[in-house]
Design brief:
Belongs to the glycosyl hydrolase 1 family. This is Glycoside hydrolase. The chain is built from 18 helices and 13 strands. With 497 residues, the protein is α/β, with parallel strands linked by helices. The strands form 3 sheets. Strands 1-2-3-4-5-7-10-11 form an 8-stranded parallel beta barrel, surrounded by 4 helices. It starts with 16 loop residues before the first strand and ends with a helix. Bound molecules: 4-nitrophenyl beta-D-glucopyranoside (PNW).
């Protein structure tokens, strides 16, 4: 039950999509099996000292590639109506383009068939940061416009094969992170730099190419292929509140939103980058041709936001100097961001001392949904929270399995966020159509490896057993209480009703 009396009896909008999310490299394991080609993350995790804090990798962790039937059976047993994973591009095209790996394809045929059999709807990402290494080695991955055609070729192939069973497609997960390339280009010691130079330039180039790749696929999907589902990409962003009522701090908030959300939201809602990006970045920011602007505008069917937390934002002194120097404090937004309120309190509890960026700010998600749909991008028809979740705690903090599964801070985070997503719908009249929790079970958390756990199920890294945490039951109970959809018939028994 909700702690918030305002919404104790409130019901979700009809057809609200909810479920758990994940991504291929983070849960599949089987990295060297059945013809999968390497991705940049195999390189990063195996070859780049310091890239992953605990020197782990996605080679095996989770083994969802082999255990997907069990994982889906549990989802269905619990009644979860949606699952939002990603397909591994290098499993289908081991070299990024060219020959197809039939074993990988057969695997995803089976995965989709299993979901269909169980009545679980996939919201499927085509790309979640696992750029085929061959394309990186050959031409620099997302920094090179050549990747657009290779991505489009892959995306069309997958969509044509599975569209009948996939109601929601995400072309790209969080293009902001451009495959992490912008952050590791300066470390030219470990990879060729392709003449791109410092991170500042690579970042905007990668973003530009992800936008064009997305737009080409979306255009084809809607106009030529006439797909049955809806298509968009997943944005990443956090709620920003001004440090003070000063005009400088208000301007800093709007600047931060432009750089985080407008960078991608501007082109598809308005046809171009926000003016503030053009003014500050000058030649660093690529430009769209008129034809490209037309291609991108309107290329998303709805707004998808991965939103984990919120910050206080203020102005910094020399914005221009910061903008052109990727190692400057505050780059690339070039504002100050803080997890402390102006009167000196923390914005919210942190799940884990190692994940300092992530504080629980449930009120922020409500304001954020309103800000995105009413202020920033009023053209957006509806919005889904495609990821939110909490890290708690480091493996070393556990003394036993009960500690690990009794994840009360995560349970509280999830309930607080769901309450506020519901309030955004009922009180603020935001057209919010879905919410996916990150993540189905503890997985490979990129630079934090196996050290940071985001799952609503505990993963025993040795036995591979998954154990539901308190937060998973809390989630089920919340959706039951507020009229969420369930598949299967066992959920009442599961919840002891
Ligand atoms: C997401 N931020 O990325 C990713 O899509 C997941 O793969 C990842 O496991 C998950 O977050 C948890 O970290 C984010 O700076 C990247 O606020 C950055 C931020 C949030 C999410």
């Amino acid at each position: 039950a909700s702690s918030n009396p305002e919404i104790a009896n409130a019901k979700l909008p009809a057809n609200f999509a909810w479920g758990l999310s994940s991504s291929a490299y983070q849960i599949e394991g089987a990295a060297k099996d059945e013809g999968r080609g390497p991705s940049i993350w195999d390189l990063l995790s195996h070859r780049v000292p310091g890239q992953v804090v605990d020197d782990t990798n996605g080679d095996i962790l989770g083994q969802h590639y082999y255990l997907y039937k069990q994982d889906f059976a549990r989802l269905q047993k619990l009644g979860t109506p949606w699952f939002s994973p990603s397909i591994s591009w290098p499993r289908i095209f081991p070299f990024g383009s060219g020959p197809i790996n039939e074993a990988g394809l057969k695997h995803y045929d089976d995965v989709i068939a299993e979901l269909v059999k169980l009545g679980i709807k996939p919201a499927l990402s085509l790309f979640h940061w696992d750029t085929p290494l061959a394309l990186f080695n050959e031409y620099g991955g997302w920094t090179n416009p050549k990747i657009i055609d290779d991505y489009v070729n892959y995306a069309k192939f997958i969509i044509s094969r599975y569209d009948e069973h996939v109601p929601v497609w995400f072309t790209i997960n969080e293009p902001q992170y451009c495959n992490w390339q912008y952050s590791y280009y300066p470390a030219g010691e470990y990879y060729p730099s392709y003449g791109i130079g410092p991170g500042a330039k690579a970042r905007w180039l990668c973003g530009h190419h992800t936008l064009l790749a997305h737009a080409k696929v979306a255009k084809w999907y809607k106009e030529e292929f006439k797909g049955k589902g809806r298509i968009t990409f997943k944005n990443s962003g956090n709620y920003f509140e001004a440090n003070s009522t000063s005009t400088e701090d208000a301007a800093a908030v709007s600047r931060a939103y432009d750089f985080v959300l407008g960078w991608f939201g501007g082109p598809w809602t308005d046809g171009d980058y926000p003016q503030s990006l053009k003014d500050t970045l000058g030649d660093l920011l690529p430009t769209f041709t008129e034809k490209e602007k037309k291609l991108i505008k309107g290329s998303c069917d709805f707004y998808a936001i991965d939103a984990y937390t919120g910050y206080y934002v203020g102005a910094i002194n020399d914005v221009q100097a910061c903008a052109t120097n990727s190692s400057a404090g505050g780059w690339p937004e070039c504002v100050s961001q803080s997890s402390v309120t102006p009167d000196g309190f923390g914005v919210g509890p942190s799940g884990d001392l190692g994940v300092t960026w992530l504080k629980s700010t449930p009120g922020g998600i409500r304001s954020f949904l309103k800000t995105i749909t009413k202020d920033l991008f009023p053209a957006v028809p509806d919005i889904m929270v495609t990821e939110f979740g909490f890290a708690e705690p480091f493996e070393s903090e556990y003394t036993n399995i009960q500690d690990a599964t009794w994840d009360l801070r995560r349970a509280d985070y999830i309930q607080g966020y769901l309450d506020n997503i519901l309030l955004a719908a009922t009180e603020d009249k935001v057209n919010v159509t879905g919410a996916f929790i990150w993540s189905i079970f503890d997985n490979f958390e990129w630079g934090s490896g196996a050290a940071v756990r985001f799952g609503v199920q505990y993963l025993n890294y040795t036995s591979l057993e998954r154990t539901p945490k308190a937060s998973l039951f809390q989630t089920l109970n919340w959706f039951k209480t507020h009229g969420g959809e369930f598949v299967g018939s066992d959920v009442n028994a599961t919840l002891g009703r």
